[in-house]
Amino acid sequence: MKNHIDTILVQSGNRTDAVTGAISPAIQLSTAYEHKGIGQSTGFDYSRTGNPTRAILEDTLAKLEEGQRALAFSSGMAAIQAVLNLFSTGDELIVSQDLYGGSYRLFLQFEKQYGIKFHFIDIRDESRVMEKLNGRTKAIFLETPTNPLMNEISISSVSSIAKEYKLLLIVDNTFYTPILQKPITAGADIVVHSATKYLGGHNDVLAGAVIVKSEELGEKLFIIQNSIGAVLSPFDSWLLLRGMKTLSLRMARHEENARDISEYLVNHDCVTDVLYTGKGGMLSFRISREEWVGPFLQKLKVITFAESLGGVESFITYPATQTHSDIPETERNRLGICNRLLRFSVGIEHVDDIIRDLENVFNQLKGEVLING
Ligand SMILES: Cc1ncc(COP(=O)(O)O)c(C=O)c1O
Predict the structure, then answer these.
(1) What pLDDT score was predicted for residue 368?
(2) 298-323: per-residue pLDDT in tens?
């Protein structure tokens, strides 16, 4: 029987060094490895191609997502770029319209430079997907839940279409992580992560991952990774492994806190909408007045106004000027990413302290309205 995901996470790296018995694997900084003779290799020759610390991380990532193989990259964007390198001029992809702004920017760049077409649509609507399908369509790329609007997309429903039309299904699993969702078991071919977020969990490592369902895809992506070279360094591989050990504990606490905070915000008169799926630690909300956004972000004392997510510390991000600033304003407004929308990565602090922080700031903003009219 397979171990539970919590056990796989905690045990990662243990029993990998038969010589010393080290529990925490060594950070193998060597870029080159001795050959005992021509054609003789320990399995490691040159660090871009393979590194022992990165290999432990990649094995762990493959197990977590139940894929055949995983590859670790120097950032989430490097991982997504490697996946896009599977496609050629004339190919078309159907992609979520509501996704990380950096992915949106990269897709537009590939469209301009390499003539790969991206159709940005609401993938929840099957008829829209069918409308965009044609003989040149090669893949569907989605984020679920979407970023920052927190809409869930059924991976298994989309995977039926992908299978029928022989398309690759690529899922960015950064927000839910394999603790809450395993895209490959739901029918995806490729999973990508910004491991900078929940997998790392401590805002101290920039990393990306690709996990694939088949050896064939693994080999193609390995050739791309090795050729381009945006691999994760040994130290960052070790940091990520160390961070991941507590992923399941952290996700449980993120979710517990997010549920309480969502309830608090739903009932607050300074907030018009709360977007939360009920799962995980990410939620978005619209503050009632646009002019409050700046002072709200400045007055927070526990929560930090910063542009990332998934770490132990609570962060609030302003998509309009940060993560989604590359999306034109009219398009943002059409999607609902308006200038009152804030994205909240709920941390694992004591929930009472987070709520008190919000309450203090809302009270100050309301007080200022009373004084200034
Ligand atoms: C959902 C999602 N995918 C990909 C990325 C890009 O990852 P990175 O910043 O590690 O390059 C991000 C970054 O915010 C993200 O939120």
Answers:
(1) 82
(2) 999 999 999 999 999 999 999 999 88
Domain boundaries, the chain: 5-244, 247-372
Cβ of 98 closer than 6 Å to ligand 1, yes or no, is no
For residue range 277-288, what is the model confidence (pLDDT) as tens digits?
999 999 999 999
Among protein residues, the one whose CA lies closest to atom 8 of ligand 1: 76
**DSSP assignment of 85-133:** TT--TT-EEEEESS--HHHHHHHHHHHHHH--EEEEE-TT-HHHHHHH-
Mean pLDDT, residues 354-370: 93
- Tell the residue nearest (CA) to atom 6 of ligand 1: 76
Q: Is 196 in the pocket of ligand 1 (CB under 6 A)?
A: yes
Q: Indicate if the pLDDT at residue 11 is higher than 70.
A: yes
Nearest CA to ligand 1 atom 13: 194
- Integer angstrom CA distances of residue 20 from 24, 42, 56, 357: 11, 18, 16, 48
Tokens standing for residue 20:
């010393």
Give the Cα separation of 250 and 314 in Å (integer): 12
Catalytic positions, written as ranges: 48, 100, 172, 197
The ligand 1 atom nearest the CA atom of 208 = 10
Q: Measuring from atom 7 of ligand 1, which residue has the nearest CA?
A: 76
**CA 363 to ligand 1 centroid distance, Å:** 33
CATH topology of domain 247-372: Aspartate Aminotransferase, domain 1 (3.90.1150)
C-beta 147 within 6 A of ligand 1: yes
Question: For the domain with range 5-244, which CATH number is right: 3.50.40.10, 3.40.640.10, 2.60.40.1120, 3.40.50.1480?
Answer: 3.40.640.10
Residue 373: the pLDDT is 63
